Amino acid sequence: MNGNNIYNHAIQQSSIIVFGNEANGISKQIENLSDVQVQIPKFGKAESLNVSISVGIVANEIKRLSFKG
Fold first, then answer.
1. What would the pLDDT profile of 24-40 be if each residue is shown by its tens digit?
2. Any residues with CB less than 8 A from the CB of 1 and at least 6 apart, and which?
3. Cα–Cα distance between 33 and 8 in angstroms, integer?
4. What is the CA radius of gyration of the chain?
5. Residue 60: other Cβ atoms inside 10 A
6. How many CA within 13 A on the CB side of residue 37?
7. H/E/C letters for each residue in the chain?
8. Which pTM value belongs to this model?
9. What is the structure's pLDDT at 68?
10. Are 66 and 15 in contact (CB under 8 A)?
11. Which residues of the chain have pLDDT under 70?
12. What sign has the CA pseudo-torsion 29, 30, 31, 35?
């Protein structure tokens, strides 16, 4: 659960994005291959996000940033 706040870190268009589950995250092997890790900040009292919700938030952020040019 550590990484840069997704709203403060631009994801490059050539990125490969890997999502981990809430219990185990990503494997150490994948973590060691990664250049950057991002996280979605928590608001309210929710403990975690469903991975499909997380994908939607990240995809929206990538699309939003692509329009900023």
1. 888 999 999 988 888 88
2. 25, 39
3. 22
4. 12
5. 10
6. 15
7. CCCEEHHHCCCCCCCCCCCCECCCECCHHHHHHCCCCEECCCCCCCCCCCHHHHHHHHHHHHHHHHHHC
8. 0.75
9. 65
10. no
11. 1, 68-69
12. positive
Q: Are 7 and 41 in contact (CB under 8 A)?
A: yes
Q: pLDDT at position 30, please? A: 92
Cα dihedral 49, 51, 53, 56 sign: positive
What pLDDT, on a 0 to 100 scale, did the predictor assign at position 12? 73
Q: Please provide the size of the chain in residues.
A: 69
Return d(Cα 53, Cα 61) in angstroms, integer.
Answer: 12
